[in-house]
Amino acid sequence: MPTAEQRSTSCAGGLAEEQVEAVKVAVEGVRHASTLAVKQRMKSVASIQKITKAMKMVAASKMRSAQLATEKSRGIVAPFVKLLGDLPDVDVAKNITVPITTDRGLCGGINTTVCKYARATTKTLAGGEALNQAVLVWESEKENQLIVVGEKGRSQLQRDMRNSIIATIADTNKVRITFPQVSAIAEELLKTEFDAARLIFNRFQSAIAYKPTIATVLSPDNLEKEAAEGGGGLDQYEIEGPDRPELLADLAEFQLAATLYNCLLENNCSEQSSRMAAMENSTKNAGEMLGKLTLTYNRTRQASITTELIEIISGATALAEK
Fold it and tell me: Is pLDDT at 161 greater than 50 in this prediction?
Protein backbone atom coordinates (compact mmCIF):
# COMPACT_ATOMS: atom_id res chain seq x y z
CA MET A 1 0.00 0.00 0.00
CA PRO A 2 1.28 3.52 -0.75
CA THR A 3 2.29 5.56 2.22
CA ALA A 4 0.80 8.90 3.14
CA GLU A 5 3.86 10.69 1.76
CA GLN A 6 3.56 8.88 -1.58
CA ARG A 7 -0.15 9.66 -1.75
CA SER A 8 0.50 13.37 -1.07
CA THR A 9 3.28 13.40 -3.68
CA SER A 10 1.02 11.82 -6.31
CA CYS A 11 -1.79 14.27 -5.49
CA ALA A 12 0.61 17.19 -5.74
CA GLY A 13 1.89 15.84 -9.05
CA GLY A 14 -1.68 15.50 -10.35
CA LEU A 15 -2.52 19.05 -9.33
CA ALA A 16 0.66 20.36 -10.97
CA GLU A 17 -0.17 18.56 -14.23
CA GLU A 18 -3.73 19.95 -14.17
CA GLN A 19 -2.41 23.47 -13.59
CA VAL A 20 0.05 23.11 -16.48
CA GLU A 21 -2.73 21.87 -18.76
CA ALA A 22 -4.96 24.78 -17.66
CA VAL A 23 -2.18 27.27 -18.38
CA LYS A 24 -1.60 25.68 -21.81
CA VAL A 25 -5.31 25.89 -22.65
CA ALA A 26 -5.44 29.51 -21.48
CA VAL A 27 -2.39 30.48 -23.55
CA GLU A 28 -3.73 28.72 -26.64
CA GLY A 29 -7.11 30.41 -26.10
CA VAL A 30 -5.47 33.85 -25.93
CA ARG A 31 -3.51 33.18 -29.11
CA HIS A 32 -6.61 31.95 -30.90
CA ALA A 33 -8.63 34.94 -29.67
CA SER A 34 -5.96 37.45 -30.78
CA THR A 35 -5.71 36.00 -34.29
CA LEU A 36 -9.50 35.76 -34.52
CA ALA A 37 -9.91 39.42 -33.53
CA VAL A 38 -7.37 40.52 -36.14
CA LYS A 39 -9.06 38.35 -38.76
CA GLN A 40 -12.46 39.88 -37.99
CA ARG A 41 -10.95 43.35 -38.20
CA MET A 42 -9.42 42.50 -41.57
CA LYS A 43 -12.81 41.32 -42.81
CA SER A 44 -14.56 44.52 -41.69
CA VAL A 45 -11.86 46.76 -43.23
CA ALA A 46 -12.09 44.84 -46.52
CA SER A 47 -15.88 45.35 -46.53
CA ILE A 48 -15.44 49.08 -45.88
CA GLN A 49 -12.93 49.26 -48.73
CA LYS A 50 -15.44 47.69 -51.13
CA ILE A 51 -18.15 50.16 -50.05
CA THR A 52 -15.94 53.24 -50.42
CA LYS A 53 -14.71 52.05 -53.81
CA ALA A 54 -18.29 51.60 -55.00
CA MET A 55 -19.27 55.04 -53.64
CA LYS A 56 -16.35 56.60 -55.49
CA MET A 57 -17.49 55.05 -58.78
CA VAL A 58 -21.09 56.20 -58.21
CA ALA A 59 -19.93 59.74 -57.37
CA ALA A 60 -17.75 59.84 -60.50
CA SER A 61 -20.71 58.79 -62.66
CA LYS A 62 -23.00 61.40 -61.08
CA MET A 63 -20.35 64.10 -61.38
CA ARG A 64 -20.09 63.68 -65.15
CA SER A 65 -23.81 64.24 -65.70
CA ALA A 66 -23.90 67.04 -63.12
CA GLN A 67 -20.99 68.79 -64.82
CA LEU A 68 -22.83 68.92 -68.15
CA ALA A 69 -25.94 70.41 -66.51
CA THR A 70 -23.81 72.92 -64.60
CA GLU A 71 -21.99 74.16 -67.68
CA LYS A 72 -25.29 74.65 -69.48
CA SER A 73 -26.80 76.61 -66.56
CA ARG A 74 -23.92 79.09 -66.56
CA GLY A 75 -25.17 80.42 -69.88
CA ILE A 76 -28.43 81.49 -68.19
CA VAL A 77 -26.74 83.44 -65.39
CA ALA A 78 -23.98 85.18 -67.36
CA PRO A 79 -26.29 87.67 -69.19
CA PHE A 80 -27.86 88.74 -65.87
CA VAL A 81 -24.44 89.45 -64.40
CA LYS A 82 -23.57 91.63 -67.39
CA LEU A 83 -26.93 93.39 -67.41
CA LEU A 84 -27.69 93.85 -63.71
CA GLY A 85 -24.28 93.36 -62.19
CA ASP A 86 -23.23 91.43 -59.09
CA LEU A 87 -22.90 93.68 -56.03
CA PRO A 88 -22.07 91.64 -52.90
CA ASP A 89 -21.13 94.79 -50.94
CA VAL A 90 -24.45 96.59 -51.54
CA ASP A 91 -25.77 98.29 -48.38
CA VAL A 92 -29.50 97.61 -47.80
CA ALA A 93 -31.81 97.34 -44.79
CA LYS A 94 -33.12 93.77 -45.18
CA ASN A 95 -30.63 91.04 -46.08
CA ILE A 96 -31.31 87.37 -46.76
CA THR A 97 -28.36 84.96 -46.73
CA VAL A 98 -28.92 81.58 -48.40
CA PRO A 99 -26.12 79.08 -47.65
CA ILE A 100 -26.45 76.10 -50.01
CA THR A 101 -25.22 72.85 -48.48
CA THR A 102 -25.80 69.12 -48.95
CA ASP A 103 -28.28 66.74 -47.36
CA ARG A 104 -25.77 63.89 -47.10
CA GLY A 105 -22.31 63.68 -45.61
CA LEU A 106 -19.10 61.88 -46.63
CA CYS A 107 -18.19 64.68 -49.05
CA GLY A 108 -15.22 66.43 -47.47
CA GLY A 109 -15.37 69.94 -46.07
CA ILE A 110 -17.61 71.72 -48.57
CA ASN A 111 -20.41 72.23 -46.04
CA THR A 112 -18.05 73.57 -43.38
CA THR A 113 -16.67 76.10 -45.86
CA VAL A 114 -20.14 77.35 -46.82
CA CYS A 115 -21.16 77.70 -43.15
CA LYS A 116 -17.97 79.59 -42.41
CA TYR A 117 -18.74 82.04 -45.23
CA ALA A 118 -22.34 82.37 -44.02
CA ARG A 119 -21.17 83.35 -40.52
CA ALA A 120 -18.62 85.81 -41.91
CA THR A 121 -21.19 87.36 -44.26
CA THR A 122 -23.74 87.80 -41.47
CA LYS A 123 -21.11 89.38 -39.25
CA THR A 124 -19.99 91.73 -42.01
CA LEU A 125 -23.54 92.81 -42.84
CA ALA A 126 -24.22 93.49 -39.16
CA GLY A 127 -21.08 95.56 -38.88
CA GLY A 128 -19.34 93.14 -36.53
CA GLU A 129 -21.34 94.27 -33.49
CA ALA A 130 -21.34 92.51 -30.13
CA LEU A 131 -23.02 89.13 -29.85
CA ASN A 132 -24.84 87.13 -27.23
CA GLN A 133 -22.86 84.27 -25.63
CA ALA A 134 -25.71 81.75 -25.64
CA VAL A 135 -26.98 82.27 -29.18
CA LEU A 136 -25.37 84.25 -31.95
CA VAL A 137 -27.58 87.33 -32.23
CA TRP A 138 -26.16 90.23 -34.17
CA GLU A 139 -27.18 93.55 -32.61
CA SER A 140 -27.73 95.81 -35.58
CA GLU A 141 -30.40 98.04 -37.07
CA LYS A 142 -30.26 96.00 -40.26
CA GLU A 143 -32.36 92.87 -40.62
CA ASN A 144 -30.23 89.81 -41.37
CA GLN A 145 -31.95 86.46 -41.84
CA LEU A 146 -30.88 83.01 -42.96
CA ILE A 147 -32.66 80.53 -45.21
CA VAL A 148 -30.58 77.34 -45.19
CA VAL A 149 -30.61 74.87 -48.06
CA GLY A 150 -29.52 71.38 -46.98
CA GLU A 151 -29.65 69.42 -43.73
CA LYS A 152 -25.90 69.55 -43.14
CA GLY A 153 -25.88 73.34 -43.17
CA ARG A 154 -28.86 73.48 -40.82
CA SER A 155 -27.21 71.15 -38.29
CA GLN A 156 -24.07 73.31 -38.23
CA LEU A 157 -25.61 76.79 -38.25
CA GLN A 158 -28.35 76.13 -35.71
CA ARG A 159 -25.71 75.67 -33.00
CA ASP A 160 -24.88 79.38 -32.87
CA MET A 161 -27.28 81.14 -35.29
CA ARG A 162 -30.61 79.43 -34.70
CA ASN A 163 -32.39 82.72 -33.97
CA SER A 164 -31.44 84.01 -37.43
CA ILE A 165 -32.72 80.93 -39.34
CA ILE A 166 -36.26 81.49 -40.58
CA ALA A 167 -36.56 78.48 -42.91
CA THR A 168 -34.78 75.33 -44.05
CA ILE A 169 -35.06 73.71 -47.48
CA ALA A 170 -34.06 70.05 -47.73
CA ASP A 171 -34.08 67.13 -50.17
CA THR A 172 -33.34 69.28 -53.21
CA ASN A 173 -31.04 66.61 -54.67
CA LYS A 174 -33.23 63.55 -54.13
CA VAL A 175 -34.36 63.87 -57.73
CA ARG A 176 -32.77 65.62 -60.67
CA ILE A 177 -32.73 69.40 -60.19
CA THR A 178 -35.15 71.11 -62.60
CA PHE A 179 -35.99 74.76 -63.23
CA PRO A 180 -39.67 74.41 -62.17
CA GLN A 181 -38.54 72.93 -58.86
CA VAL A 182 -36.13 75.84 -58.32
CA SER A 183 -38.81 78.36 -59.35
CA ALA A 184 -41.03 77.09 -56.51
CA ILE A 185 -38.16 77.67 -54.05
CA ALA A 186 -37.56 81.14 -55.53
CA GLU A 187 -41.21 82.03 -54.95
CA GLU A 188 -40.80 81.20 -51.26
CA LEU A 189 -37.72 83.41 -51.10
CA LEU A 190 -39.60 86.30 -52.72
CA LYS A 191 -42.21 86.13 -49.96
CA THR A 192 -39.59 87.41 -47.50
CA GLU A 193 -39.57 90.75 -49.40
CA PHE A 194 -35.79 91.04 -49.15
CA ASP A 195 -33.74 93.98 -50.36
CA ALA A 196 -30.75 91.81 -51.20
CA ALA A 197 -30.34 88.03 -51.26
CA ARG A 198 -26.85 86.53 -51.06
CA LEU A 199 -26.53 82.93 -52.20
CA ILE A 200 -23.42 81.17 -50.86
CA PHE A 201 -22.38 78.01 -52.71
CA ASN A 202 -19.38 76.04 -54.00
CA ARG A 203 -18.60 76.86 -57.62
CA PHE A 204 -17.33 73.83 -59.50
CA GLN A 205 -13.94 74.30 -61.19
CA SER A 206 -12.56 70.82 -61.77
CA ALA A 207 -12.75 67.29 -60.41
CA ILE A 208 -10.33 68.24 -57.65
CA ALA A 209 -11.17 71.92 -57.08
CA TYR A 210 -14.16 74.06 -56.16
CA LYS A 211 -14.40 77.68 -55.03
CA PRO A 212 -16.75 79.18 -52.39
CA THR A 213 -18.74 81.91 -54.12
CA ILE A 214 -21.35 84.53 -53.18
CA ALA A 215 -24.00 85.50 -55.75
CA THR A 216 -26.09 88.61 -55.00
CA VAL A 217 -29.64 89.23 -56.21
CA LEU A 218 -31.31 92.62 -55.58
CA SER A 219 -34.97 93.54 -55.28
CA PRO A 220 -36.54 95.65 -58.09
CA ASP A 221 -36.36 98.88 -56.03
CA ASN A 222 -32.70 98.37 -55.26
CA LEU A 223 -32.03 97.45 -58.88
CA GLU A 224 -33.44 100.82 -59.90
CA LYS A 225 -31.39 102.55 -57.23
CA GLU A 226 -28.15 100.87 -58.24
CA ALA A 227 -28.86 101.57 -61.93
CA ALA A 228 -29.31 105.26 -61.09
CA GLU A 229 -25.97 105.25 -59.24
CA GLY A 230 -24.21 103.61 -62.17
CA GLY A 231 -24.18 99.99 -60.99
CA GLY A 232 -24.60 97.26 -63.59
CA GLY A 233 -25.19 97.81 -67.28
CA LEU A 234 -28.96 98.35 -67.31
CA ASP A 235 -28.79 101.98 -68.47
CA GLN A 236 -26.85 100.94 -71.57
CA TYR A 237 -30.11 99.62 -73.02
CA GLU A 238 -33.17 101.59 -74.05
CA ILE A 239 -36.38 100.52 -72.37
CA GLU A 240 -39.47 101.78 -74.17
CA GLY A 241 -42.80 102.36 -72.50
CA PRO A 242 -43.84 103.43 -69.02
CA ASP A 243 -43.62 99.92 -67.54
CA ARG A 244 -39.98 100.05 -66.41
CA PRO A 245 -40.82 99.06 -62.76
CA GLU A 246 -42.75 96.03 -64.03
CA LEU A 247 -39.84 95.05 -66.25
CA LEU A 248 -37.40 95.35 -63.36
CA ALA A 249 -39.68 93.23 -61.16
CA ASP A 250 -39.81 90.50 -63.82
CA LEU A 251 -36.05 90.66 -64.33
CA ALA A 252 -35.40 90.42 -60.57
CA GLU A 253 -37.68 87.39 -60.20
CA PHE A 254 -36.18 85.58 -63.17
CA GLN A 255 -32.65 86.47 -62.07
CA LEU A 256 -33.32 84.97 -58.63
CA ALA A 257 -34.67 81.72 -60.12
CA ALA A 258 -31.85 81.45 -62.70
CA THR A 259 -29.13 82.22 -60.14
CA LEU A 260 -30.56 79.77 -57.61
CA TYR A 261 -30.81 77.10 -60.33
CA ASN A 262 -27.15 77.61 -61.23
CA CYS A 263 -26.08 77.66 -57.56
CA LEU A 264 -27.82 74.35 -56.79
CA LEU A 265 -26.26 72.68 -59.84
CA GLU A 266 -22.81 74.08 -59.07
CA ASN A 267 -22.99 72.91 -55.47
CA ASN A 268 -24.31 69.47 -56.50
CA CYS A 269 -21.42 69.04 -58.93
CA SER A 270 -18.94 70.17 -56.25
CA GLU A 271 -20.52 67.70 -53.82
CA GLN A 272 -20.00 64.77 -56.17
CA SER A 273 -16.40 65.74 -56.95
CA SER A 274 -15.63 66.18 -53.24
CA ARG A 275 -17.28 62.86 -52.39
CA MET A 276 -15.31 61.15 -55.15
CA ALA A 277 -12.03 62.51 -53.71
CA ALA A 278 -13.05 61.64 -50.14
CA MET A 279 -13.99 58.07 -51.07
CA GLU A 280 -10.76 57.66 -53.02
CA ASN A 281 -8.77 58.69 -49.94
CA SER A 282 -10.88 56.38 -47.77
CA THR A 283 -10.28 53.45 -50.12
CA LYS A 284 -6.55 54.16 -50.08
CA ASN A 285 -6.48 54.38 -46.27
CA ALA A 286 -8.49 51.15 -45.97
CA GLY A 287 -5.99 49.41 -48.24
CA GLU A 288 -3.06 50.60 -46.11
CA MET A 289 -4.83 49.51 -42.92
CA LEU A 290 -5.64 46.11 -44.45
CA GLY A 291 -1.97 45.65 -45.32
CA LYS A 292 -0.89 46.43 -41.75
CA LEU A 293 -3.53 44.11 -40.30
CA THR A 294 -2.47 41.31 -42.67
CA LEU A 295 1.14 41.74 -41.54
CA THR A 296 0.06 41.67 -37.89
CA TYR A 297 -2.07 38.57 -38.47
CA ASN A 298 0.74 36.72 -40.23
CA ARG A 299 3.24 37.63 -37.52
CA THR A 300 0.86 36.54 -34.73
CA ARG A 301 0.08 33.29 -36.53
CA GLN A 302 3.77 32.61 -37.21
CA ALA A 303 4.65 33.34 -33.57
CA SER A 304 1.93 30.94 -32.42
CA ILE A 305 3.19 28.17 -34.72
CA THR A 306 6.80 28.76 -33.62
CA THR A 307 5.83 28.62 -29.94
CA GLU A 308 3.93 25.36 -30.44
CA LEU A 309 6.90 23.82 -32.24
CA ILE A 310 9.22 24.85 -29.43
CA GLU A 311 6.87 23.28 -26.87
CA ILE A 312 6.67 20.02 -28.85
CA ILE A 313 10.47 19.83 -29.22
CA SER A 314 11.01 20.66 -25.55
CA GLY A 315 8.54 17.96 -24.50
CA ALA A 316 10.15 15.38 -26.79
CA THR A 317 13.59 16.28 -25.45
CA ALA A 318 12.41 15.96 -21.83
CA LEU A 319 10.91 12.54 -22.52
CA ALA A 320 14.10 11.36 -24.27
CA GLU A 321 16.23 12.39 -21.28
CA LYS A 322 14.07 10.28 -18.92
Answer: yes
CB proximity list for 44: less than 8 A, separation 6 or greater: none
| CA–CA separation, 220 and 247 (whole Å) | 9
Residue 62 has pLDDT above 50, yes or no: yes
Kindly report the length of the chain.
322
**Separation of alpha carbons 220 and 39, rounded Å:** 66
- Reference 194, options 128, 246, 147; nearest CA is 147
Question: 95: closest CA among 192, 209, 182?
Answer: 192
User: Do the Cβ atoms of 194 and 144 come closer than 8 Å?
Assistant: no
Question: Is residue 193 helix, strand or coil?
Answer: coil
What span, in angstroms and rounded, lies between the C-alpha atoms of 215 and 11?
A: 90
CB-CB contact of 275 with 106 (8 Å): yes
Task: Please tell me the predicted confidence (pLDDT) of residue 3.
Answer: 53
Pairing label, strands 94-99, 196-206: parallel
pLDDT of residue 318: 82
Q: What is the pLDDT of residues 117-146, one digit of tens each?
A: 999 998 888 775 434 433 444 444 578 899
| Burial environment of residue 21 by CB neighbours within 10 A (0 to 12, 13 to 18, 19 or more) | exposed
CA angle 287, 289, 290 (to 5 degrees): 65
Nearest to 170 by CA among 113, 102, 267: 102
CA distances to 171, 258, 270 from 232, rounded to whole Å, are 34, 17, 29
129: DSSP letter: -
* Alpha carbon 274 to chain centroid, angstroms: 8
Which residue type occupies 125? L
Helices (H), 143-243: 151-161, 179-190, 220-228
Residues 243-264 have pLDDT tens digits of 777 888 888 899 999 999 999 9
- Of 303 and 284, the structure prediction assigns the larger pLDDT to 284
